[in-house]
Amino acid sequence: MDPFRTLRGFRDILSPETDILSYIENTAKEIFKLYAYNEIRIPSVEMTELFVKSTGDTTDIVEKEMYSFNDAGKRNISLRPEGTPGVARAFVQHKLNLSGKNSKFFYIGNMFRAERPQAGRFREFEHIGIEYLGNPSASADAETIILLMALLKKTGVKDYFAEINSLGCGDCREKYKKELLEYLKNNASRLCEWCQNRIEKNPLRALDCKIDGSKLSIEAPKLKLCEDCSLHFEKVKELLKIAEIDFKINKSLVRGLDYYTRTVFEVKSSALGSQNAIAAGGRYDKLIKSMGGQDTPAVGWALGADRLAMLIKDNISLKSNAPDIFVICADKSSFTESFKILNNLRNNGISADFSNFELSLRSQMRSADKSGATIALIMGEEELKNSSCSIKFLKHAEDDKGKQEQIPLNELLEKTKNILNTENRIND
Length: 428
Hints:
There is one protein chain. By secondary structure, the protein is α+β, with helices and mostly antiparallel strands. The chain has two domains: 17-168 and 225-312, BirA Bifunctional Protein, domain 2 (2-Layer Sandwich); 325-427, Anticodon-binding domain (Rossmann fold), CATH 3.40.50. Helix content is 38%, strand content 20%. It is built from 15 helices and 16 strands. β9 and β10 (277-283) form a beta hairpin.
């Protein structure tokens, strides 16, 4: 294996992909502010036990996909495969339930899973997620889904839809587990090896199996909700309709993580093919208590930023990263003044670039043309003598392309600002 190439499933992200991801992140932060969510930054590495206990020891993530290892202190640690356990751990560790503030958090960060790389799925990937802790109401469930749909609309996704379901409370699930377990035992020979091995540990996991899940969703017994869970789910649906959110009920939607209770949901796009989920989440009312905290209801979701980027790349127009001005030094005597101009432009909020003032004028002009700048400022012996600067309109300023003029240095800042404002109005 070549040590100077990226590992399979990992990649370098370059412009314009970085620009699209930045656009998604900035748009998400705007939406989060509207809904009063605060940013939290959690470690990339946690104790492995955190993910085993929260995510579930029979999940694909824990069984097959985590990057786990022993560090120098012989602690078993893992790169985070998802964000919710870390946020929950921080909530308990810092006693955030006592802060007096709303417990609504968002995070943006890279996650790690050793799964098979495919379109939009990498072994290091970016998740944008939210967690709303402390509110047991159906209104919290509805808000998180409404927020998610608002974010997708704002970023420019054209084709997406929500699917929702309820997994019921602990009592609902315990009754259902017994019924489902009996069915699975009677049909064990028809199940894949993974499902056969985990029937006893967690029969619900079979419903989320990539091999048997679709078949079992049709043939297996169906979950029956208790009265409270049924009323909760009806309220969620009512609130989503009030907010004019289009959604479908998907009874086979169970999500793959152990901590979910009651409402679960996914947002999908047919443009992504068979692996069509953009974002997913749900309610997890027992997780915080299982980690040693107070009994705290919670709901949240995570969105795959890389998958979202695939969906919107052709639907959005991003501002160019090209500099406004390219500064050129025509001879050695003008080096200092050229650098002063470059620095002064930046100090006044004007994007400016240069190549190497010691190169030939022709070479610097080639760099200016390639830079995408609107104008070039040329400083040479004649300009220095006259306390002036030459402005040349580059090919990107079509109306004045190739035009060149000299202006006094004391008018340079005002003149360049006027030119750039005019060009921006034309482009807009």
